[in-house]
Amino acid sequence: MAHVLVVEDDDKIAAPLVRTLEREGYTVERVAEGLVAIERVRDTAVDLVLLDLGLPDVDGLDVCRTIRDSGYRGGIIILTARDGELDLVVGLDVGADDYLAKPFGLSVLLARVRALFRRNGIGPQPTPQPMAPLEPVSPPSGFRVDVEARRLWAGDTEVQVTSKEFDVLALLDSKRGAVISREQLINDIWDENWYGSTKTLDATIGRLRQKLEESHAPARITTVRGVGFRLEDVPDA
């Protein structure tokens, strides 16, 4: 069973976190200081580190950087009360796989943990099933968002987008012609605990508009000032 190291100095946060992880069947160890965490990762087979940034002895970012530099290849999820986007970016740059801003829901944390373990091949893995031969598929005409395949088509041209860009466009397409508020887009795509700048959403919308225009897609994203955005068809595009 996966071994999780919780690095958190706040007992009120650490205690329910440890109990929840143990109920899920993980082997859990908790430490309250960064230097101790570095030693435990060095001396113990740890699969995942849940790392608070505000530790009493050293900064959590330094802990993350140190264990990565020492060759640790397990998962690292940062837990932080800092609302600065720079801290989150630096955390990912020095080796973290994911982050959660405090306060966070334990169900959200467990989902992030399971997703990270799936990506790393840790824990029970589904038995691969033989794949049926694929039939040739002709791209549909018009503009289409294929949610199951996570692909976008503008006529017979596939529009290449990032994961977040696809999620934004898929949400807009789910209510094509209706307005989706900025709050709903941020909460559904970046989750309700996102404390980063809302300019992240604006930048994503800007890139999507450019890609739709460059692919001559018969659809466009319209801004509804003070409310949000709307995806609408443009028959003559």
Keywords:
237 residues, alpha/beta, Rossmann fold, Arc Repressor Mutant, subunit A, 5-stranded parallel beta sheet, 3-stranded antiparallel beta sheet, 8 helices, 40% helix, phosphoprotein, transcription cis-regulatory region binding, Sig_transdc_resp-reg_C-effctor, Sig_transdc_resp-reg_receiver
**Can you tell me the CATH superfamily of the largest domain?**
Response regulator
C-alpha Rg (nearest Å): 21 Å
The first-level CATH class of the largest domain is given as: Alpha Beta
Number of helices: 8
Strand order of the largest sheet: 2-1-3-4-5
Largest sheet: 5 strands, parallel
CATH topological fold name of the largest domain:
Rossmann fold
Which range best describes the helical content: under 10%, 10-25%, 25-40%, 40-55%, 55-70% or over 70%?
25-40%
Which residues form runs of ≥5 with pLDDT under 50? 124-129, 134-140
Overall 3D form:
elongated
Q: From the 3D coordinates, which CATH architecture of the largest domain would you assign?
A: 3-Layer(aba) Sandwich
Domain Response regulatory: 3-117
Keywords: DNA-binding, Phosphoprotein, Two-component regulatory system
Protein name: DNA-binding response regulator
Domain OmpR/PhoB-type: 135-233
